[in-house]
Amino acid sequence: MNNFKKMSIGFFLILCGSAFAQEFDVNLQIRPRYEFRNGYHSPIPYGETAAQFVSNRTRLGVNFKLDDKLVTKLTFQNIRVWGDVVTNTKSDVNGIQIFEAWAQYNFNEKWSTRLGRQVMSYDNQRILGEIDWAQQGQSHDAALVSFKDNKNQLDVALAYNANSETDIATPYTVSTYKTMQYAWFHTAFGKLNASFLFLNTGYENKLPDPIPTPIPDLKVDYMQTFGTYFDSKNTKWECNGWFYGQTGQSNTNTVSAFNAALSFNYAVTDRFKTGLGYEFVSGKSQNDLSTDVKSFNPLFGTNHAFNGYMDYFYVGNYKNTVGLQDAYLNFGYSIDKLKINLLPHFFSAANTVIDLNGQKMNNYLGTEIDLTFSYAVYKYVSVQGGYSQMFGTDTLQRVKSGDVDHTNNWAWLMINVNPQIFKFQ
Length: 425
Hints:
By secondary structure, the chain is mainly β. 6% of the residues lie in helices and 52% in strands. The protein has helices at 3-19, 394-400, and strands at 22-38, 51-66, 70-81, 97-106, 111-118, 140-148, 153-160, 179-189, 192-204, 220-233, 237-250, 253-267, 272-281, 324-335, 338-348, 364-378, 381-392, 408-417, 420-424. The longest helix is centred in the first third of the chain and has 17 residues, at 3-19.
């Protein structure tokens, strides 16, 4: 190639770079986690042995931004358990999934729209969250329109799901909503931040087997979740709280449920913080014969962050049950790169529990002690771990089964490596 051609190509590249401001980066995450489960999720049944395993998340994220107008994100992930395939395998159990794949167009500084598979996470993630603790996380196929200025933000989103491309209506068989819409508004009043959420979820009623031909009208039940979240803080203290109600229909039954909470934390010193909180999640008494759904459903929240790290409540279980009262304390200590937290939880049923003889039981479910730590090893490397133990009662065993007289505990250790491996700007 002669010098003239080299200069021409170089000049062309300079023009392209100056005409459009481009940003491009690639990041990697490798996150193995060891767990010892000896009564995790529920009291371990009598005679059973604790489980041990290492799960692993691998993610590769590609982000691109062009001239403050176009933003895209693509995140691949693989979720595995060490040893789930042989060492010379030609295939993987879970393969490669797309966790995020969206494009966003910014109309101006205030208005934008985003289309594709995306994380929907708001406030403290009680109703809509990423569920980052779960190795697979959580994302939605949706369209989002957003308005944002210095003090306010309004997000409006909608989603409509189907099994596949079809020429006629077919039953939706995936275990999630058929359709969803929500509006979330956030604003600030001085030191007080407040958010308001209205969420409408439609779940398709399942047709009993055998599926008739032609397929009848596919009915969708709609449930509404609505409420507010607030938080406020200064240099020494912070508090937050929320109230959400639920109404509508679920499996043709009327829904009437609610969730409320309040917490307060105070920095005793620069290194030591303490706090307390209380949450009430409505439920249904076991001697209530009505068909109404009175048990609140946190839906798409990051439930692992609430009601104890052993996930006895609302993490894939405990829904449509007697509800929960959770009174808890929080003690946190940090020094340099190390953070340690101690969280005792005192659980009680929110409604009546009946024993095998039809008698009302004490509503106290038990106490869970959660001890966690995190240590920043390096710029892109951190280590986290924890130990939890549940001291359950006969009432907990009645609700959750298993054996509360057994030692029920859980321990974990996780390493997170998350470097940015390439950046162009």
